[in-house]
């Protein structure tokens, strides 16, 4: 195998999802009944991830109750609140929360993330999502989700406004000169006077610049618009890739787009999702995986699949392949990349609906890998060396046990192979990912178009 | 003095404001330089307040940088984030945060407060504000603040939506039946289908009902619209009252309005603000108060006063009274009650602008009381017995020292007199205030118009 020449340590993120990524994980005897709303459960997960020296933990989100409440734990704590609570029980691990650019105001959200960055001592990250789905739209006065393209245009302007607000205080603004009686220097705190298509925001923010300057900017959509957005703004990308070839192509694509915008491709870390199901033997791991699939109630899953594919549930036969006629990605307005991934997976592997449901129930389109700790470490190393990944988004099927097995069995192997840190060397999330603290585009960057990210500063000052 | 017959223990709230309520507190040698953004500082304040067995702590807020950043610490952590961080370092004290109904979406905010209530084990309170001021409006795409009346109409509908969302899960919705494979019972989780003037929200919320059902609902405006709003929705009211007579009249007014709406007047706790400046002797206390006033830079304060009064700063002479011609309350669209309070105070006591600035600098219109611990306890008892207050909003001029003095010297006197608890008897904020957990208006109340608050359930189900 060709070793990649830039063999920097890889990055590991723990994607925390209630009692596990497998939709039936909650039915196991070990799972706490109310995992989604139980702080003690999440605190335990955060401590395990930090014990493993993982770069970060991550919380997904959508402002809507997803699917049938009978199917799996649907009650979930709001991520910036939960993140703050987890900051209090950890000291080094990075903390990434999802928040929607479609259903928030930039002033409020910029302020919340700056605040989380302050209280956590520079450990905040923001997974920027545009939130697909009519159900979410109907919690915010709309009949249906805004058009895909509009959501991404709004997201880009949202990030522009947020970064300007984070830059509205110079790092040296607070003087606190008690003798003189001047707290902050007025000339080092400036309005942003943003006037755009979606937003008009005067600023300045009412929170001084935070330890990281900006939270780490993360993105997860893999549609064309999503990849362009990632290339421009993202510093880490969570992605669902089923095969090595697809993952290599995806990474190459996003990094080339970034280079095309004048960014350093090394400034974007690509982290495919992996659902590791770990056993003492491969057979034991596969048996756990199969046991979980048996616990799925197919009527829930079939209804959900039909919803995603925009077809009638009755058109799905559990023991047959997907029907021939389903809408193309072009006709879909939300979650395009997830839609395509599901259809491609089903067609490529000629899965029956029942088999497809099992695969999706495990990782919702992410790659499930059942094997020994050694085998999990091998596939991680293999993908990493092949340039398919700068790290991995670890999505244990069952929590906390799956995270515990990963941290206690897989991480030591990766450390032994020199692939992963044995101690934290930095204190901020950006330091863990080897990414710079962004310069202040309002006060410190002489050429305002040469900022840290592909964000041209327009309209400010 | 006539003792009030319902001598239930009084309630004490610690209003935490950076390094103190006096605008010049930050200039004292003891004050930390970056108090507004420093979690360790706030954590110390929370621990002191909890040591004193106070009912709650409270964070004010407006989504805007207030005034000149030179004048006092203007950088402040977002309150729901800070509250969550403080929940982690305390175990019993209630946690009240301000949030605006004008610049939030009900789905997002209902979810955040439900989440804070979950992570704190039932200690969350929401101070409902409508946010006056063109500066704040200009951070949210508006040219000026919405009309006073519109803000209150929106606020009422906002609270209606939020309470419906909190009721969208029955308390017994989560079954977590592993055998059957049913997590929550679909028939015990319902959309709210709200269709109103300001909001359309389908729901249900994606957080199950929280320990308190609703966070404690707090309100602070004292205009006519504000008092009507308090009478209908508030369970605790923070108010600025300079004299005993005004405070008695205010309390009577609000409670009568509530009774007129069919509510139990005992279900609304009135807490006037008091800025206690405590010394070993009265003279020492007055000297500390005067020292703080000398540290005010009058040019900052004069500019701020002119802004509030909507007049030219040059019209203000530091050593003369307020000019005769200033706008009436009717012409003011924001913070009406604060405006009137300032003008009334200046006219009643015939204060010069310099004196007025001193009084406002200390407590921004709240009542400053300089004296010994015994004298502070006396005035608290006096107001309480006279029916002017169900408790007090404690606003130390300097933090942490002023809170420490209050907790260590005044609280023991109040405890000795049987006026204040010596131990927490409940675990939730509602229990501290002696207020019931609200019934679920969607699932548990047979006559939906006879709910806990003056909230008629309309449009739902």
TrEMBL record, chains A, B:
InterPro entries: Diverse_substr_monoxygenases, Luciferase-like_dom, Luciferase-like_sf, NTA_MOA. Pfam families: Bac_luciferase. SUPFAM superfamilies: Bacterial luciferase-like. Residues 28-388 form the Luciferase-like domain. Keywords: Flavoprotein, FMN, Monooxygenase, Oxidoreductase. CDD domains: Nitrilotriacetate_monoxgenase (cd01095). Belongs to the NtaA/SnaA/DszA monooxygenase family. This is LLM class flavin-dependent oxidoreductase. The lineage of its organism: Bacteria, Bacillati, Actinomycetota, Actinomycetes, Kitasatosporales.
């Amino acid at each position: 195998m060709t070793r990649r020449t830039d063999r920097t340590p890889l990055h590991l993120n723990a994607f925390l999802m209630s009692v596990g990524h497998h939709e039936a994980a909650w039915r196991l005897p070990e799972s706490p009944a109310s995992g989604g709303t139980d702080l003690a459960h999440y605190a335990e997960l955060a401590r395990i991830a930090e014990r493993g020296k993982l770069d970060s933990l991550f919380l997904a989100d959508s402002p809507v109750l997803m699917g049938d409440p009978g199917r799996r734990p649907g009650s979930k704590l709001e991520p910036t609140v939960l993140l703050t609570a987890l900051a209090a029980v950890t000291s080094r691990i990075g903390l990434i929360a999802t928040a929607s650019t479609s259903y928030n105001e930039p002033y409020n959200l910029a302020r919340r993330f700056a605040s989380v960055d302050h209280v956590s001592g520079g450990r905040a990250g923001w997974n920027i999502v545009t939130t697909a789905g009519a159900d979410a739209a109907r919690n915010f006065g709309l009949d249906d989700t805004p058009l895909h393209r509009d959501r991404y245009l709004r997201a880009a302007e949202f990030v522009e406004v947020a970064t300007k607000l984070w830059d509205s205080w110079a790092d040296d603004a607070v003087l606190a000169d008690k003798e003189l009686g001047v707290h902050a220097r007025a000339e080092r705190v400036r309005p942003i006077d943003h006037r755009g298509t979606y937003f008009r925001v005067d600023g300045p923010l009412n929170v001084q610049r935070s330890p990281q300057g900006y939270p780490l900017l993360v993105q997860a959509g893999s549609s064309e618009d999503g990849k362009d957005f990632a290339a421009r703004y993202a510093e880490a990308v969570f992605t669902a890739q089923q095969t090595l070839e697809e993952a290599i192509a995806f990474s190459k694509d996003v990094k080339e787009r970034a280079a095309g915008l004048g960014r350093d491709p090394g400034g974007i870390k690509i982290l495919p999702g992996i659902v590791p199901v770990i056993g003492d033997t491969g057979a034991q791991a596969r048996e756990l995986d199969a046991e979980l699939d048996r616990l799925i109630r197919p009527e829930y899953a079939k209804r959900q699949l039909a919803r995603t594919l925009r077809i009638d549930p009755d058109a799905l036969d559990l023991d047959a392949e997907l029907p021939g006629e389903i809408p193309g990605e072009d006709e879909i307005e939300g979650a395009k990349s997830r839609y395509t991934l599901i259809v491609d997976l089903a067609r490529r592997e000629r899965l029956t609906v029942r088999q497809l449901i099992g695969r999706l129930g495990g990782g919702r389109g992410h790659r499930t890998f059942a094997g020994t700790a050694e085998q999990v470490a091998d596939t991680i190393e293999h993908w990493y060396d092949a340039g398919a990944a700068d790290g991995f988004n670890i999505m244990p099927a069952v929590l906390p046990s799956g995270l515990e097995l990963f941290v206690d069995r897989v991480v030591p192997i990766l450390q032994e192979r020199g692939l992963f840190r044995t101690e934290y060397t930095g204190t901020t999330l950006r330091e863990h990912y080897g990414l710079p603290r962004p310069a202040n585009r309002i006060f410190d960057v002489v050429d305002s178009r040469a900022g840290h990210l592909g964000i041209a500063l327009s309209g400010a000052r």
